[in-house]
Design brief:
Layout lengths: L1 H35 L5 H21 L3 H10 L2 H10 L5 H7 L2 H9 L3 H9 L3 H7 L5 H10 L2 H11 L6 H4 L6 E2 L5 H11 L8 E5 L5 E6 H6 L6 H4 L13 H11 L3 E5 L5 E6 H19 L12 H27 L2 H6 L2 H29 L8 H31 L9 H32 L8 H24 L2
Parallel strand pairs: 1-2
Antiparallel strand pairs: 2-3, 4-5
Helix pairs in contact: 1-2, 1-3, 3-4, 3-5, 7-9, 8-10, 15-16, 17-22, 19-20, 19-21, 19-22, 20-21, 21-22
Length: 488
């Protein structure tokens, strides 16, 4: 059922995008035709047609969820994006800015003046303001902080003081607390008086004086227990809690492990300071996943699909330069064996197979290790066992696929002129090179992300590039070296 709902939601937003693009195209066509007409009071007619064409588009945008509007903005070229952005109602600007990707958000902010930005941010909750503030101009942030009341300003300043990858930067301050000495009936009356609960509220936080957290009260327990029972008798007195300085990645794993919807955030004295919610955690996981995918492809930052050629090119220079250097090194490895290749042309046809198999195997190991580091599963106690396992897999795969490729090489060249070289010997060299390079691939796939992690960087950052470079270079060197020693 969940997959069915996801498919329907995806179809809905894609249909909305098509409708918006169609309305924009019709608007441009009609405006172009009217602009070319020579008629009395031309400017008035053109203005009326302009407003009429955009009315339907405005209504369409008003009916969409902020996340859907952000999706549509990201899929539109810059000119059309700004046209749609101008039609969005001002009271929805803040929500949509939060939903947009960093790159798209930048273009939208550039199109807004300070007054609009302050108004958009001021309508948000404190944790959302803290999310948006780093992308706003400094003078806008200063003006925004002045417009907030003392309590809200203190909360925003507190959120901004934490590292962006910490729990403190993700937590919000909208939660419901209750004392432990009241009955469930009293607690229910209190909730009815509130009239509305913060989003994703699945439990109340039970506190003593000075907001000291002593437990949590799940709402479902309130409904199934005797209304005359006291909160202290029903509450959970060992809840999963976080500290503001905790790593957000660790917290996201805890949310997945314990199926959490919300969790309290406490300071060093167990004083309740905020809460973490599943929607924020999911957003963090999604952003981290997208960042890892970009970094694995050699992109340094989130890139707008319709950014300028110059900006996009600069974003891709780093790892293109690294790839160029590694390719030159690999070519020099091949160049060192030019004489061997001239004597036995079959080497030129077979050596890409060895390098390609090594690269694929190395990236499999690298992906597994990067995931292990991301989930905190790899430590000094199990690292050697993991490495031994990967080496064992590489030896087994090398024996199987190297043997198969050795037979294939023999069958391909058994009747071919090899300058006195035996096809059996060529197949044996092929099999040995394949096995050795798969062992090298396992080592590269493990140590490349491990070394990057040791330097405090994301293990996904460039690990695939480094692994491929090592397996390519060593694949050429091993195969051509063995052929030179044993065949020529």
């Amino acid at each position: 059922m969940d997959d069915e709902h996801e498919d329907k939601a995806k179809e809905h937003v894609e249909d909305s995008l098509e409708q918006v693009m169609d309305l924009i195209a019709r608007h441009k066509l009609v405006e172009s035709l009217v602009h070319k007409q020579d008629m009395p009071r031309h400017d008035l007619v053109e203005s009326l047609v302009h407003k009429q064409n955009l009315t339907e588009l405005t209504k369409k945008l008003d009916d969409l969820h902020p996340a859907d509007v952000a999706y549509i903005l990201e899929a539109l070229p810059l000119e059309d994006r700004l046209l749609v952005w101008d039609l969005v109602k001002a009271d929805r600007d803040g929500e949509i800015l939060l939903e947009a990707s960093d790159a798209v958000r930048e273009t939208l902010i550039e199109a807004m003046d300070n007054r609009e930005l302050v108004a958009a941010a001021a309508s948000l909750d404190t944790d959302e303001i803290a999310d948006l503030a780093p992308d706003l101009p400094k003078d806008v942030v200063q003006e925004l902080m002045k417009s907030l009341d003392h309590a809200k300003r203190a909360q925003v300043e507190s959120s901004l003081s934490y590292d962006e990858d910490s729990v403190g930067a993700l937590m919000d301050y909208d939660f419901v607390t209750i004392r432990c000495d009241v009955t469930l009936e009293t607690a229910l009356r209190y909730l009815r008086r509130l009239g509305d609960l913060p989003e994703h509220t699945d439990k109340l936080f039970v506190v003593e004086r000075d907001q000291i957290l002593i437990g949590t009260l799940p709402l479902k327990r309130m409904l199934v227990h005797d209304p005359d029972a006291h909160v202290a008798a029903v509450m959970s007195d060992e809840p999963v809690t976080f500290h503001p300085s905790d790593d957000a990645s660790d917290a996201s794993q805890a949310f997945e492990r314990y199926d959490l919807v919300t969790a309290p955030v406490v300071d060093a004295n167990d004083r309740l300071v905020g809460r973490l919610t599943v929607d924020v955690v999911l957003d963090y996981i999604r952003e981290e996943t997208e960042t890892d995918l970009l970094q694995a492809a050699g992109l340094r930052e989130d890139e707008d699909l319709f950014t300028t050629v110059w900006k996009a090119a600069k974003n891709r220079w780093l790892w293109l330069g690294v790839n160029l250097v590694t390719a030159l090194i690999a070519s020099r490895v091949v160049g060192a064996f030019e004489g061997s290749i001239e004597k036995l042309a079959a080497l030129a046809a077979l050596m890409p197979i060895v390098a390609g198999m090594g690269g694929n195997s190395g990236n499999q190991t690298s992906t597994l290790v990067v995931r292990g580091f991301a989930l905190g599963l790899i430590n000094k106690d199990n690292a050697q066992r993991l490495l031994a396992k990967e080496l064992g897999i590489s030896v087994l795969n090398g024996a199987v696929w190297g043997g198969i490729m050795g037979v294939v090489a023999y069958l391909l060249y058994r009747g071919a002129p090899l300058g006195g070289v035996s096809a059996v010997a060529l197949g044996g060299v092929m099999a040995a090179a394949m096995m050795l390079n798969l062992v090298v691939a396992a080592l590269a796939g493990y140590f490349a992300p491990a070394i990057i992690d040791r330097f405090g960087r994301d293990p996904a950052f460039g690990s695939a590039v480094l692994t491929t470079f090592i397996t390519d270079s060593m694949g050429f060197f091993i195969f051509l070296g063995l052929a030179t020693v044993f065949l020529l």
